[in-house]
Here is the input.
Amino acid sequence: MNWIVKESCFDKQLVTTNGNKYMLGNGYMGYRGTLEEFSKTELVAVTLAGLYDKEGDKWREPVNAPNGLLTKVFCNDQLLSVLDCEPVAHTQELNIRNAIHHRSTEYAVSDGGALTFTADRFVSQDNLHLLVSKYSIRSTQDCRVAIETGIDVDVWDINGPHLYGQKVQLKDEVLISSSVSGELKIPVVVAERAYFSFGEELLEDGAAVRRISFDARAGETYEWFKYVAVYTGLDADQPETEAVKSVHAAEALGYEALFKAHRLLWDERWSHSDVIIEGDEAAQFALRYSIYQLLIIAPTVSEKVSIPARGLSGQVYKGAVFWDTEMFMLPFFLHSDPKVVRNLMMYRIHTLDGARRKAAEYGFLGAFYAWESQDTGDDACTLFNVNDVFTGRPMRTYFRDKQVHISGDVVHGIWKYVQFTGDESLLTSGGAEVIWECARFFYSYAYYNSVKQRFEILDVTGPDEYHERVNNNAFTNALVKETLEIALRTAALLEAKYPEEYSQLSAPFSSGPFLKEFKTMLDSFYVPQPDPASLVIEQFDRYHTLEDVELTELKSRVLNKNEYFGGGNGLATTTTILKQADVVLMLNLFKHSFSKEVKQANWEFYEPRTEHGSSLSPCIYALVAADIGSPDWGYPYFMRTATVDLTGESKQYVGDLYIGGTHPAANGGAWMAAVLGFAGLDYDGGVVHINPSLPKHWQSVQLPVTLRGDTIQLRISKDEVTVITAADYSGDLVFSVQGGEGKSCSAGENLRLALSKREYKY
Amino acid sequence: MNWIVKESCFDKQLVTTNGNKYMLGNGYMGYRGTLEEFSKTELVAVTLAGLYDKEGDKWREPVNAPNGLLTKVFCNDQLLSVLDCEPVAHTQELNIRNAIHHRSTEYAVSDGGALTFTADRFVSQDNLHLLVSKYSIRSTQDCRVAIETGIDVDVWDINGPHLYGQKVQLKDEVLISSSVSGELKIPVVVAERAYFSFGEELLEDGAAVRRISFDARAGETYEWFKYVAVYTGLDADQPETEAVKSVHAAEALGYEALFKAHRLLWDERWSHSDVIIEGDEAAQFALRYSIYQLLIIAPTVSEKVSIPARGLSGQVYKGAVFWDTEMFMLPFFLHSDPKVVRNLMMYRIHTLDGARRKAAEYGFLGAFYAWESQDTGDDACTLFNVNDVFTGRPMRTYFRDKQVHISGDVVHGIWKYVQFTGDESLLTSGGAEVIWECARFFYSYAYYNSVKQRFEILDVTGPDEYHERVNNNAFTNALVKETLEIALRTAALLEAKYPEEYSQLSAPFSSGPFLKEFKTMLDSFYVPQPDPASLVIEQFDRYHTLEDVELTELKSRVLNKNEYFGGGNGLATTTTILKQADVVLMLNLFKHSFSKEVKQANWEFYEPRTEHGSSLSPCIYALVAADIGSPDWGYPYFMRTATVDLTGESKQYVGDLYIGGTHPAANGGAWMAAVLGFAGLDYDGGVVHINPSLPKHWQSVQLPVTLRGDTIQLRISKDEVTVITAADYSGDLVFSVQGGEGKSCSAGENLRLALSKREYKY
Here is the structure.
């Protein structure tokens, strides 16, 4: 089976795209899919999770560490670089099974000869601080070869510089680059050990790059290794000591042992997460690739970081965490590695104070989570997030102050985790506080309409960011309602099961607004409902009065290809054209509250009006298409989502803002579409419901799912669902297909549940 | 004393400006200050009050009638026109005392001779349908003269055409142009009688212009007359019959008798309204001119029209009625001719149903008055009122749907009238209904904040239109509060004094929301208050968080001289720069509710932040400057306001929208600044308070005031106030200066009230 992403030639135009496509990472750091001789011009980046820095009044963004893997090869004094010499042959490969990157380039050298340079590298899953690489050179002719390798301290920054007091020293054969971040004065250390068994080494005092020179004999292969460790002051009190220790330990183990440890962990990861699609190789590959992109950025260890909107592929979007995590990535991790979800949710708990500060800044109670969250939870989102292409002026946008659904998204995520895993300890570890503070925020944000006798949520921006400052956005109101319900449910749960913790946790809220007020608000809270005739739910008040223009017509009005469709004078703002799924997203989120007819009516109404200007959009249409029994409507949206980081065809600019990078929300969305959509898996802590809605050409979907401590295998075809349990299976789960009777099975047993033929709309 | 506006040469560049500056009018129609030979290219317009028409999907605007005064003179077959031949001498004059326009042009003719053409015209105040003109020709040499005169049926329209089925006929020597408006099919008739005592007349069948030819003898003066009547289907069932009758009657009376009747009425008008400023000729002239501009557009007869924002100077701003009338023009008419105010307020009563429709359109109760009101009260304001100069695209603006203070402005006007005149019949003639419906509108517009436990007014645009969609705009909230109070007060008044009418008028509101709800809302209604430390009242929620930029700095950011500072991406919207007085306007409106210190602090805070992008702005700063004893701060703002239509230096474009024309609100503002500001007159139906605050170089202000049926003369100097009463004075008024004891006097007596020296801040 295919686990390889591969280029067979070098195309300079694809350097940026491939930097994303060939990413490595381990949740602690990301390493862009660049080549060994590249520098910041080609956007080489070792992006660190959770370490942010602000330079002057520029945007705050994550710190990129110096690149310890810089390596340049010279033959007879000529630099061999794909950027300068047309290679004879070139391949770049990413093995997503093992998370290892390989490049091999053959260069023509003088007198008709050829020199082949290869490099393999991986970002260790076993030791998160470690970058490991193996290189080789082989020439068809004798020649003089020089290798320059060391640490590239000239890092790429979008809003830098971030590292000050750069200092390089050699200690016990280890090159050490030390610097300190500008804002928080956090030390950043990169230690590098290059192991050569040949050549003469030249390293000038204080230099970060050494030169190894030797006479290469024709036909002989020269191989060397590098071990690089990255530590910051956030990881250890003595990051330098730790980094050097790490590098020495790595060298002692050697490349193969390190790789084996890494590979075993990746085997383990795939055993919990690989999804097999029978009958669709393209979908199979794209989905697996999407899962890979999620795995390389998952915070498996730290509960102080979450997943940024562009993963660890650089500093785009300020390395900030958006609602993407809760709404688009959570389901994958919930089903495959719930402890990652716990980390992600703990990150929200740790950043509660930032959310409280934001609420207070705007005069509200409780917690208003950051639209763009970094280390402290303070909002990195500016009020001017896009530049107007016509005037070059910053444009006032309302992402930061009006996208209040973020607090509901966080609550949704926490509750999903608790429901799914049954791990109620999250609630007593701060989760309840987050939930209640978000509910308090919404209570203070809401207004009561005395004539209509109802609470409303005014002046918000929903997921469809082309329509800012709207009233009663259906999605937002539905989430506010859910937040209030969860707040009450949490209180009831804690009071019943953890009365001591409850009385302690709820004490600070005794003067209100608290449960009584939440209840009052819930009792007369307005959530837009389907129109009795059309079944369409109006996206927000007066949406139906907007110009109902065709998308093609709207696009024909474009004057500048990078112009932003939203903002003050955006083309879409006065029309019914949406940026992304909004009502339909709500229908998916609360799928059990709406009939198939309502879902279908809204899908049909909103889809033609959706520009899909966000990579988060198509997967939702795929999910709901599957839900209503029209998987083939959804299939193109699924494929578009699943291939976003393979094709590199996503939006690269909004206004003059570069927004390239990887798309973890789409990666998560692809998984959701395949598993929760087409395969029809639906578990909320009770029965495992399975209601498949497979695309015509899919024979089956097979996947492992980790539920309440058990990892089971599911094989879902059009005829039957097979549950394969392990020898140590607890026997606790109950399975139901197509809404039928719940069935259980014992360890080692294969439960086969027949499916009745479903009417598909193709 | 100077009553003459005059040009002494012809400047083609000034044709548009002078069209406004030399306006004639009588409230029924306006006649632009163009010359006899001009056509639509020079914006000739006979703009009719109250007759509107909509062509296709263009903006609805008033109808311009064909110009019955068109007259061209030819000498030896050469057209004599200032547009084509440089005249030897040329004067254009407007006598504002008599409201008569005069032009005299001397042209060089062949062989060194000269021909002088003069024309006098007036728009009769005695018969509102009548245009009257007298012409003369005198040549220094014998020559062949031809005169083309008749009706110019090729009318100027901004969004036309509006007249269809144009037909010209000659009946009993009267040329009659008949047509019908496009939308409402209202007949528009112009009847013209040209009286010549010389020459041969040639009139082709169906032609609208005749040709009179004759041999002019050197040194002899040839004089002729024209009588033109304009009638529409709104005026009479048989407009043609009426027009012809009118013209015949006029001819029978003759020019001099017609002019005398006109002049006497104007004498009468000035006797009720002229303000004499001793010590400042420039101010004297400008103020008198401002009063003239108000008098020519006052609806003295009809209660179906109000005064458009650009008077009757053309179709600019759709000929629509804005808040300008109530807030800026009302005071002048209240003091000089209260029956005009009654007409203006009856117009609002007649358009109540339009306001009800607008409220219902947006889902509110009661009456939401039109931002741009025409004949029906439906809103002529579009959602896209300005074009973006950078893209040429219509820009979504929030004049129409968010400037809710208009309903409060209307209520304020009605109550002012009732208070001032004591004429409570306005309340029982529909005024109470308007007041209650506006209060109901605000009740349904308001939202209750459960945490702050108060009603708020969200999402509005205040007078400062550069900041759209703000919450708790101080000005708006203050007006809402006043509306609720007036609603309750009206009910109490009617119930006590007119119980039968009250029970009938209030019956439709018995199911509420009505008085009980108004009371509830008032009891916890939020109006922004002065900050305890700075005394500054925040213009709206979070105004103080905006970029606090200097006006010069803001202007340095301008990229296109016509770019609009407001709207979605306007330069001012994200800064503290205001379009016009907003908080300061509120301080003026509710001057008795705020201390001098608060007024001064806000004047000093907001004035440097005010762009005065509206001609309504400077007068308010003049008023409040006078109020706080700093008249010389205010003087430049007064002068700027009073000269706006003399200099023609106001804004001509917003985006690519032409907004030229006269500025009646500024004219009214100039009067307010001089009389209510500097002279310090303050009457609200009780005591006549006078608290002068004269600019340094003003010796006195003298003016007639009509109060409760008495017309008295006031002479206000720095030392004393003299009240001069007529022989038939009722003796009912009480006068108080500088807050001192009230004094009264008897008929024919001159009451002298000494002033103590006031501390002025110069």
User: Anything to note?
Assistant: The interface with chain B takes residues 363, 365, 383-384, 388, 390-391, 393, 395-396, 443-444, 446-451, 455-456, 458-459, 469, 471, 513, 517, 521, 541, 557, 559, 567-571, 573-574 of chain A (CB under 8 Å).
